[in-house]
Write a structure and sequence with these properties.
188 residues, alpha/beta, Collagenase (Catalytic Domain), 5 strands, 38% helix, binds zinc ion
């Protein structure tokens, strides 16, 4: 009887590992390239300091630095066509952040297409409405910058404190899954 229970326990552990390990070994990223690949020039709109989000965005950029040698950020002082752009504004509904990828003609394109640059927006009115703390804001900014690096939402809800999970988050650091997704997209 004891042996039977032990065998059952081992079987259940194996089933659990089979279910979880393929997911953990994979990554959730969008296809397609990006100008400069992981080498990211970015321009910060004056709206960011006007709404008081300068430290929010700089903290978010820092989160993604030092994870992959192929992902390096360089702040530029003019809005050149190939630099990503960070903005803060207002929006209807309850969306707190989103991205818009563009091609070389300035048209919005799909997540899987080649991006000349990408705009990352934070929406102050909705963050204010939802009582966002500084950490909540940095988490959303880090999430949106993750999208600018072609990281998608994790497909399964494994509750591993991934920054790429949707919604209001009380942590703003990257999980091992976030980091492995970045490396699988751009290299180690
Ligand atoms: Zn998202």
């Amino acid at each position: 009887m004891v042996l039977k229970k032990a065998k059952l326990a081992i079987l259940l552990v194996c089933l659990f590992l089979l279910l979880v390990f393929p997911l953990s070994a994979s990554a959730t990223v969008w296809g397609g390239g990006k100008n400069g690949s992981g080498y990211t020039d970015y321009w910060v709109s004056p709206s960011v300091s006007e709404y008081g989000y300068s430290s929010v965005f700089s903290a978010a950029v820092t989160r993604w630095e030092g994870v992959s040698s192929e992902v390096v950020f360089d702040k530029v002082n003019t809005a050149i066509s190939t630099a990503d752009r960070y903005y803060v504004g207002t929006a209807a509904g309850d969306v707190t952040g989103r991205i818009y990828p563009y091609d070389s003609s300035g048209n919005v394109v799909g997540t899987w297409q080649y991006w000349t640059r990408v705009h990352a927006w934070l929406y102050h009115n909705n963050m204010y409405q939802a009582n966002f703390s500084y950490t909540n804001k940095v988490a959303t900014a880090t999430h949106e910058i993750g999208h600018t690096l072609k990281l998608a939402h994790p497909q399964s809800n494994l509750d591993l404190n991934n920054i790429m999970e949707q919604g209001k988050k009380n942590y703003s650091t990257l999980s091992w899954y976030d980091k492995s997704s970045l490396r699988s997209k751009w290299g180690n």
